[in-house]
Amino acid sequence: LSIAADSHCKYIHTNLKFFAMTILRFFFTLLSRWLVIAVGLVRAYLARGSYHGLYYSIEKPLNVCPLCHIPGIVPSSVVLTGFQVMSRVFLTWAVTHSVREVQSEDSVLLFVTAWTVTEIIRYSFYTFSLLNHLPYLIKWARYTFFIVLYPMGVTGELLTIYAALPYVQKTGLYSVTLPNKYNFSFDYYTFLILIMISYIPLFPQLYFHMIRQRKKVLGHVEDYSKVE
Amino acid sequence: MDALALEAAGGKKVANGAAVAAPLPPPAPVKRKPAKKAKKAVVFFEVEILDAKTKDKLCFLDKVEPNATIGEIKSMFHKSHPQWYPARQSIRLDPKGKSLKDEDVLQHLPVGTTATFYFRDLGAQISWVTVFLTEYTGPLVIYLMFYFRVPFIYAPKYDFTTSKHWVVHLACMCHSFHYVKRLLETLFVHRFSHGTMPLRNIFKNCTYYWGFAAWMAYYINHPLYTPPIYGEQQIRLALIIFLFCQIGNFSIHIALRNLRPPGSKTRKIPYPTKNPFTWIFLLVSCPNYTYELGSWLGFTVMTQCLPVAFFTLVGFIQMTVWAKGKHRSYLKEFRDYPPLRSPILPFIL
Predict the structure, then answer these.
(1) H/E element holding A12?
(2) What is the pLDDT of residues B91-132, one digit of tens each?
(3) Is the domain of B168 the same as that of B112?
(4) Greatest CA span in chain A, whole angstroms?
(5) Of A179, A180, A184, which has the smallest distance from its Cβ to B307's Cβ?
(6) Which parts pass through the membrane (chain A) (predicted)?
(7) Is the ipTM of this complex over 0.95?
(8) Mean pLDDT in residue range B213-236
(9) Which of A103, A141, A222, B179 has the fewest CB neighbours in a 10 Å radius?
């Protein structure tokens, strides 16, 4: 009986290991993608001598990356991750990709850099965690760099949306006007303004959530050292 | 939205344990002074109430009648803690267990002569009737404001004008009729299982109803409104569907009301009555939702307005969730529940 239980346990253990390995491979792939973006940025900068037009060199991987952040696989809250995915997808597809004129803006580079650095640290964190070999430096980086990167990213995002506004208004991008047979209208310009306003209540909440997380995760280390 | 919704929403508070066969005292937590001195020895209970989270002793009641109800115990607890009126008290046998009902009798509960209950604060409460009246009056008033083109909504040259399309007038009548019907049902027809719901629900519910009403009304009453493509035929068909479903919905509400004697909270399986509109009970557990969906589909076709279609879709999703919950409660509670019935759409959903 115990042999049967033992082999049953081994079966489950093997399957879990396979599952964990799949997840590990997934994180590593994402990590590499963001590294590719980072490398792409650096190379393009060195080649051109300036940072204008860098967006074009990384457009493809950048637009695909946010789509892969599947909430639920990543070990953070589904709501927060889902939110982040939505905002990233929105900014890459619905703003930067759709409004060609903003692609040469500095603000695009600002949020792309912020995202790249954040995600490289984050996926290194997940990868190493799964391998049970997490260097403290990476944990520290993950819970500290955001203090600068998060506002940096938000500034870049807001400036990009703001830069897109006049073009959206002029061309009526993604907008539907009355009269039409469905009796519906949508003004993308107003919608973008509302999105920008929504940052005001949302950003502080997310930011202070991260600060609280930081205290929780990094704080106890300081306590231990005090005890000793 | 409906008497049935109240059951579905309060699904957590389903009858705990078997149906009580013993005669129950009246459910209203009325303070009764023991009128007669008992001749035979009456074993009085002692009740202690602890906080479910901190396990602090909050209240100790001695000399509690064995046939006292939870409702009466809540009133007694309220005396010592006036900030916790009975509606916001959740009394349970187990800190993580289900809430006991107001009608449960002390001596029929699995407790010794010293009963220990756990208390949880449900937060500020508001009565169902108040919430319903508020959430339904909003759409009625808001729609009319758009219909009469009150200033600051449309361009100033349209202020206080009326639409030239007769379907717009018809839509206003239908929409207003619908909400007046709901208000009257809330006041005179529905028999609510629960008295109250958490206060924050009124903000959530009103945002939903009022927001959607404003969004729909804006387009239907807009000076640039486009009437339905197929004209009179489309509008007539839509109106027939709408009226049919309104009558159906009302019939179901009446049938459900008649299942339940006044002041009681009993639950019975609803069956078709002589009214043909109730024959749908053969196929569906919650036909009031089915008819409600039908009404709004009719209104969508009548107005040919995309925001109305969205409202219908969102409402349908919510009602399906409620119907499935209600259907599940029925199946759990009644062994002989008719197997042919689906929650909301015959054979489909």
Answers:
(1) helix A2-48
(2) 998 888 888 888 888 888 888 888 889 999 998 999 999 999
(3) no
(4) 76
(5) A184
(6) 23-46, 143-168, 188-208
(7) no
(8) 95
(9) A222
Scan for tokens 């239907």, then name that residue.
B220
Q: Select from B104, B146, B79 the least CA-distant residue to B18.
A: B104
Distance from CA of A181 to the nearest CA of B (A): 6
Judge whether A103 and A49 are in contact, CB under 8 Å.
Answer: no
With an 8 Å Cβ cutoff, are A183 and B226 in contact?
A: yes
Question: CA nearest B301 in A: which residue?
Answer: A182
Residue A111 has pLDDT above 50, yes or no: yes
| Arithmetic mean of pLDDT, B318-346 | 93
Q: What is the largest CA-CA distance in chain B?
A: 85
> Alpha-carbon distance A217 to A143, whole Å?
8
Q: pLDDT digits over B299-314, tens only?
A: 999 999 999 999 999 9
Min Cα separation B259/chain A (Å): 42
**Residue range B4-14, pLDDT digits in tens:** 444 444 444 44
How many domains are contained in chain A? 1
Nearest CA in chain B to A177: B224
Contact B224 A181 (CB under 8 A): no
Q: How far is CA B176 from CA A16, B134, B300, in A?
A: 59, 15, 15
Q: What is the CA radius of gyration of chain A?
A: 22
Mean predicted confidence (pLDDT) in A215-219: 84
- Interface contact flag, A179 B305, Cβ < 8 Å: no
Specify whether B117 is located in the same domain as B165.
Answer: no
Q: B-chain residues within 8 Å CB-CB of A179? A: 224-226
For the purposes of burial, counting CB atoms within 10 Å of the CB of B344, is it exposed (0-12), middle (13-18) or buried (19 or more)? buried
Question: If you ran DSSP here, which 8-state letter would residue B55 be given?
Answer: -
Catalytic positions of A, please?
A: 150, 157
CB pairs under 8 A between A and B: 29
> Do residue B238 and residue B184 come from a single domain?
yes
Q: Residue B343: inside a domain, yes or no?
A: no
Q: Residue A176 in 3-state DSSP? A: strand
Whether residue A179 contacts residue B225, with contact meaning beta carbons closer than 8 Å, is answered with yes
Which chain B residues contact residue A178 at CB under 8 A? 219, 222, 224-225
Both B83 and B161 in a single domain? Answer: no
Preceding amide of A179 cis, omega within 30? yes
Q: Contact B60/B18 with Cβ under 8 angstroms?
A: no
Tell me the residue range of the domain where B50 lies.
Answer: 45-123
Which residue range(s) make up the domain with A17? 1-68+78-175+183-226
* B15 within some domain: no
**B85/B133 same-domain check:** no
Give yes or no: residues B193 and B228 share one domain. Answer: yes
Question: CA-CA distance, B292 to B248, in Å (whole number)?
Answer: 9
CA dist list (Å): B24 to B74, B160, B195: 17, 59, 19
**In angstroms, rounded to a whole number, what is the distance separating the alpha carbons of residues A218 and B253?**
58
Number of structural domains found in chain B: 2
Q: What is the mean pLDDT of residues A105-132?
A: 85
